[in-house]
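Per reviewer request, we include the raw input and output of the structure prediction for the construct analysed in the revised manuscript.
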Amino acid sequence: MFECLFLEDQVSENPYARRILEAFPEVPVRNIRKIEDVFGRVKKPYLQKRTNLNLFIGRKEGRLVKEAPDAYGLEGEPHYYFIHAYNCIYECEYCYLQGYFNSPDLVFYVNHDEIVNSMKNTVLKNQDSKRVWFHAGEFSDSLALSHITQEWKVYWDFLEDTPSAMMELRTKSVNIKSILQLNPIENAVISFSLSPAEALRRYDHKTPSLKGRLKAIGELADSGFKVALHLDPIIDIETLDEDYSLLLQQITQVVKPEQIEYISLGVVRFTKDVYQQFKRNYPESQMQAAEFVTSFDNKVRYSRPHRLNILNRIKDICLSAGMAEKKVYLCMEN
């Protein structure tokens, strides 16, 4: 999978780092002082990830837990995200990572104890809140390589000791092995991004199939784990209503509506820089024909009347399938 492993000197004896190195015994290792000395210093095209990926292993510094933007999760509770990795093995045409970093190479941070301590301090700062949310998967996929990184046990220990902390792992992966090795707990949610099968075929390259994701959702729910859904990004096509009606039928065949913690709905959106990268990377994409505008938050997406029409139609489909209205929210629409 990787051409070279870059290892920061300061984590050379870290047990998580050693485990990652052991997973790739034949890949050459290069020791470096800091990830930032190498990663992204020379711009590497996003689509080079198809043929040439490196992996960086190091210590995350600076702010380890950051406040999430408005409408990132259910209203009424504080939301934060933490960064344990950069970049993703999957390739989705709408992915904002294609314009975020100067490189598609993967970065794994291994100072999980420090991240957990920052989460503990964040909970203390929010003592007036019944629950404080922490989200993983903002800059990577939470589960895609979790059988190698094996970090979630330390976060589970924190959650078991801190009932007011809620954690969401966002994923498109069917790699649930590392989660099934843990105990189901009330304050951890595994959330899956889903789109109709045809949209996945068109836009989600190298990702698990809809059938595979649904199977993983059902297996987790049957094992007692909390699950949630992100119907995001929604990309407008002529058969939108029929496609999402079928998708909700397929969802409710593997998990009961009352077992789903929440569903977020969001239309496809780009920053201006990512939109330019998307147009260069995927000139034949069917999304190129869409009428996008710059919206209130400087994101490039459908006009507000158009996207609210789409979101309300999909929300009605969710409610018709038995989803509770209080569990459905519009992502990034405040």
